[in-house]
Specification:
- The chain has helices at 13-23, 33-38, 55-67, 86-96, 111-120, 133-151, 153-159, 183-188, 201-204, 212-223, 271-283, 287-333, 335-365, 371-399, 410-427, 446-467, 498-501, 521-532, and strands at 5-9, 26-28, 43-45, 48-52, 74-78, 101-106, 124-128, 167-173, 178-181, 230-237, 243-254, 260-269, 406-408, 431-436, 442-444, 473-480, 484-491, 535-542, 545-553.
- The protein has 557 residues and is α/β, with parallel strands linked by helices.
- The strands form 5 sheets. A 5-stranded parallel beta sheet has the order 4-1-5-6-7, sandwiched between helices.
């Protein structure tokens, strides 16, 4: 019986819900040429997913499960967990079952992942957040089948809808050429189990000489990933000297270097079918209809592949649309802060306009109005109105869609950002020090880059105000070399806490629970810089504060 149990551990409920959406109630069609001819219905495959939010609950659940006599083929573990690191959880899980497959899911490829791979040695895989649904599903499906194959050959056959009374299984290691032939595979050719050794030559030397060239060509195409499956009809030599027709089907697993690491397949005895085909060719006028039906089934399979390709393209387009919506969401989430900035920048000009108006009214009331005084007050009001108009243009430009890239210097984007937030920083008593030295225009999304700088400066301001620094300072530098332009934004707000430093770019992570933080600002900043601006962003503690370093390539590859 196929064991479909999966334990998943993550302290983020949204990730556990995502696992549940991907791994339960999935319908998988059998990828088999022979099944297509027989018009077999698809089977429903649903994994028994059990989720846990803390390491303690996960380990208690695992021990209870094994105490009842059950096994867990696969666990999905987050590395960054409260109470206990994911590496320690993985070690304890392996103490319970050393053959359990472990999939590490984390946002960073750091030393802990390398240590995990080194210490657990086998049956451990790494998946980086954010990941695609198909990535996780493919990894889980392959791992579960491999685990069940090692645990019980019969259940592997049942899982892929193969009738064990009719088919023989083979499991080939292309690196060593060792092959495990099932007892049924040997019996099909008339041999006892001990009469055939576990190597590839036992099969190849029995292939009919007229078939061997085509069989090897078909197999090689699959091993070079030119075809999704290995499917061949050929003759095999039996112990009594006769030849038996077989339908041979297989699928390879590939290592990271693209080389095949394992090929598993099945033989089906189709001798009777072949004999019937020959009889039909010689005696039946209905052969053409039979062939049309077979060709129709093949056409349906090809059409199905095209449909899958279209669906994949649609999913990619939907993902891009979701990224655009998320980007717009973060921009809208900043609207409240923007309104606050506008209020700060307008307070002084409005106060000046009010005072000038009061002066004129006072002069009128005292009948002391003269032309020079009136002219001076009106000029003051006009200058302040022009200033207010410029700020409206600045903020309106920021919120306008900016889908097209343009050539612009990074220091211009920084100056535009300070046009939005500079007055607010000044009124908050923050000293902004500029050292802008880049001169080479880059091909960028201007407004999106302004959004990045704005998010980082707003975070710096919030920290400086929260910690009430006596001389709050933000230093902004830009410089370039032959390959890239670098921007450094640093503050003296005391730095980022060590336990938060590796999480700040993760989606929905925020330390502003009491300040209505969305947890998307730095996540989207990283996405914009890395995926839209050919750059990178890093955060670290330097001196008496935090420092964000952004590097942009001058030429995108």
């Amino acid at each position: 019986m196929f064991n479909n149990t999966i334990f998943a551990l993550d302290d983020e409920l949204v990730i556990l819900e995502l696992f549940n959406d991907i791994l339960t109630d999935r319908k998988v069609k059998q990828a088999s040429f022979f099944n297509a001819l027989e018009k077999k219905e698809s089977e429903k495959v649903s994994y028994d997913l059990r989720t846990f939010a803390t390491p303690k609950l996960y380990l208690e659940g695992l021990e209870s499960w094994y105490a009842q006599g059950y096994r867990v083929p696969l666990s999905i573990l987050d590395m960054r967990l409260p109470q206990m690191h994911g590496l320690e959880v993985a070690k304890k899980a392996r103490e319970i079952d050393k053959e359990m497959v472990i999939i590490v899911v984390t946002a960073y490829s750091d030393h802990t992942v390398t240590e995990l791979l080194g210490q657990l040695q086998s049956n451990v895989f790494y998946l980086r957040k954010p990941f695609g649904h198909d990535e996780l599903l493919a990894l889980v499906t392959t791992s579960m089948k491999n685990w069940n194959a090692k645990a019980d050959i019969a259940t592997l056959m049942q899982d892929i809808a193969i009738d064990v009374t009719e088919d023989g299984m083979w499991d080939w290691n292309p690196i060593t050429n060792a092959v495990v032939y099932s007892p049924k595979w040997k019996q099909m050719l008339g041999y006892e189990e001990h009469e055939i050794a576990n190597n590839l030559e036992e099969w190849s030397k029995r292939v009919h000489p007229e078939d061997i060239q085509e069989v090897m060509r078909t197999l090689q195409e699959h091993l070079e990933q030119k075809s999704p499956y290995y499917i061949s009809e050929h003759r095999l030599l039996c112990k009594d000297g006769s030849y038996k027709w077989v339908l041979d089907r297989g699928k390879a697993s590939f290592a990271q270097n693209g080389k095949p690491s394992r090929v598993v397949g099945f033989h089906t005895d189709i001798t009777k079918r072949k004999a019937l085909e020959e009889e039909l060719f010689s005696k039946s006028a209905n052969l053409s209809e039979e062939l049309k039906e077979i060709l129709s089934n093949q056409t349906k399979l090809k059409s199905s592949n095209k449909t899958l390709e279209l669906q994949l393209k649609e999913e990619i387009e939907k993902r891009r649309e979701k990224e655009e919506l998320l980007l717009q969401h973060t921009r809208q989430a900043a609207m409240g802060e923007m309104i606050s900035m506008i209020a700060h920048q307008w307070r002084q000009p409005l106060t000046t306009i009010g005072l000038s108006s009061d002066n004129m009214l006072f002069d009128i009331a005292l009948d002391n109005l003269d032309a020079p005084s009136l002219e001076e007050n009106l000029k003051t009001i006009k200058n302040q109105v022009m200033y207010l108009s410029r700020t409206i243009d600045d903020f309106r430009t920021f919120f306008m869609p900016n889908k097209e890239k343009e050539h612009i210097c990074v220091h211009d984007c920084l100056e535009n950002t300070l046009g939005l937030i500079g007055k607010n920083l000044e009124q908050s008593g923050i000293d902004v020090r500029l050292f802008l030295e880049d001169t080479t225009p880059l091909f960028l999304h201007k407004n999106e880059l302004v959004q990045v700088f704005l998010s980082i400066l707003q975070n710096a301001k919030d920290v400086l105000m929260q910690k009430k620094r006596t001389a709050p300072t933000i230093t902004i530098k830009s410089f370039e070399d032959a390959q890239s332009v670098t921007v450094v934004i640093a503050d003296n707000g005391g730095g980022i806490e060590k336990e938060h430093l590796y999480k700040i770019f993760e989606p929905y992570f925020t330390t502003k629970q009491n300040l209505n933080g969305t947890g998307l600002g730095l996540y989207m900043s990283k996405t914009i810089i890395e995926e839209r601006c050919c750059g990178s962003i890093k955060a670290k503690n330097s001196g008496d504060g935090a420092e964000f370093v952004m590097t942009f390539k001058k030429v995108c590859e």
